[in-house]
Amino acid sequence: MTTPPVDSALIDRAVRVLESGGLVAMPTETVYGLAADADNEAAVMATYAAKGRPADHPLIVHVAGPEAISQWAEDVPPEAWTLARKYWPGPLTMVLKKKARCGLWVTGGQYTVALRCPSHPWAHALIAAFAGPTQRGLTAPSCNTFGRISPSTAQHVADDLGVKPEGKLDMILDGGPCEFGIESTMLNLSDGHPTVLRHGVITREMIEETLGFAVPDAGSNAPRASGRLKSHYAPRTKLELCTAEVLPARAAELGTAEIAIMASAAVLRALDAAPMLAVEAPENLHDYGASLYENLHLLDRAGAKRILIELPPQAPAWAAVNDRLGRAAA
Ligand code: TXA
Ligand code: MG
Q1: If exposure means fewest CB atoms within 10 Å of the residue's CB, which of 62, 214, 223, 300 is most exposed?
Q2: Which residue is closest in CA terms to ligand 1's atom 13?
Q3: What is the pLDDT of residue 228?
Q4: Strand pairing partners for 185?
Q5: What is the CB < 6 Å shell around ligand 1?
Q6: Helical residues (DSSP H) of 93-233, grouped into ranges
Q7: How far apart are CA 74 and CA 96, in angstroms?
C-alpha cells in the first residue's frame, strides 16, 4: 500500500478549485471524500447533486486540527478535547453542537455538526492550505453515488463519479489506495452521553479506554446518518454471508461456477468447482478492512449471479468490518 508524496502544485490547484466553489475528490486514510467548501452553500449543494444523495443527510466537516473545533462547534464537552488530542489527525468523527457559523446546508437542517481531522497526508495538506485564519473546512461525504460501495482508490472515483465534462467532479487528487478502507468511527458528543453512531478502525474499546467509561451504541432515536441505512454500501450483485462450514454447500447449491466468492484459503479449497471469481480473504484485520471495498468492487464486477462471503470473526475488534458486510448483504 503506497501513498505517493504530496504534490504541492496539485494541492494548490485543488485549493483554487475549492475556493471557486468546485468539487474535488480528496484521498483520506478511510475512503475518498467528495470535498467542497463547507461555507459555500452552492458548492455543498452540488455535492448532494453529484452523489444523488438526499439533501437532508448531514455531511462531515473536515478540519485542519483541534484548533478548528471552536470555530465550528459550541458547548464542546471535555471528552471531545480528550478524544481530539488522542485520535486526531485520524479516523474519528465527533458530532457536536453546531455554531451559527456552520450552515444548515452542511448539517441537513440539524443543530449538530460532525467534525473530523483526517490523517492522510494529501487530505491534511489540502485542508491546511485551505483553512486560513477562520479555519475553513471541507464537507466530504464518501465520493460515491448514493447507496453504492465507498471508493478506496482514485480509480473507483474515476469509474463512478468521474471528472467533468463526462463526469461530475472538477478534479480527482490521486493519493494512492486508502490506508484503512473503512469510513471513520462516529461518536455523538452533542447531548451529554457519548454514543457510537458508526463503527470504524478506532474501536469502541479504544474509546472506552480513553474516556474511562462505557460508550454504548446510539439507539434508534440517534440523529440521521445515512451510514446507518440498512441497504448502505450495497453492491449491485446480491450478496450472502455464510459461515465457513456452510459456504461450499451453499455455493454448490447455487452453482459454484456462477458465483463470486471471498473466503479463506481453506474454504476456497473445499469448493466443488472453480467459482467465477475467487478472492482469498485476508486473515489479518487491518488488511481485511483496507481491501474490503476494493474486494466488494471486484466481486461486484465479476458478473456473477451471487456473491458469497465467508463470515469473518465475530470478535469486537471486527465490529466495523462486520457492520459494513451486514449492510452490504441487506
Ligand atoms: O471516513 C469518513 O468519515 C469519510 C471520509 C471521506 O472522511 N466520510 C464519510 O462521509 O463517510 P459520509 O457522508 O459518507 O458519511 C458520514 C455519515 C453519514 O451517515 C451522515 O449522515 C453522518 O455521518 N453525519 C454527518 N453529520 C452528522 C450529524 N450532525 N449528526 C449525525 N450524523 C451525521
Ligand atoms: Mg458514505
Answers
A1: 214
A2: 141
A3: 55
A4: 92
A5: 28, 30-31, 33, 57-60, 91, 93, 95, 107, 110, 112-114, 116, 118, 140-142, 183-184, 186, 197, 223-227
A6: 104-107, 121-131, 154-160, 204-211
A7: 7
Distance 116 CA to ligand 1 centre (A): 9
Is residue 54 helix, strand or coil? Answer: coil
pTM attached to this predicted model: 0.94
Evaluate the omega torsion of the peptide bond into residue 118 and state whether it is cis, within 30 degrees of 0: no
Q: Which ligand is nearest to the CA of 148?
A: 2
* Residue 153: alpha-carbon gap to chain centroid: 12
Q: Tell me, yes or no, whether 229 lies in a domain.
A: no
The Cα 264–Cα 281 span in angstroms is 5
Helix (H) or strand (E) holding 42: helix 41-51
Written as nine digits, the cell of 275 is 467459482
Q: State the average pLDDT for the chain.
A: 95
Residue 5 and residue 122 in contact, taking contact as beta carbons nearer than 8 Å: no
Nearest atom in ligand 1 to the alpha carbon of residue 98 is 29
Per-residue model confidence as pLDDT tens digits over 14-70 = 999 999 999 999 999 999 999 999 999 999 999 999 999 888 889 999 999 999 999
- C-alpha cell recorded at residue 41: 452553500
In whole angstroms, give the CA distance from residue 64 to residue 136. Answer: 8
Q: Which atom of ligand 1 is nearest to the CA of 62?
A: 7
* Residue that the C-alpha cell 452533542 belongs to: 190
Same domain, 179 and 63: yes
- B/e letters for 316-329, b = 16+ CB within 10 Å, e = fewer, are eebbbbbbbbebbb
Report if residue 174 sits inside a domain. yes
- Asked whether residue 173 is assigned to any structural domain, the reply reads yes
Domain hosting residue 89, numbered range: 8-211
What's the grid cell of residue 109?
A: 437542517
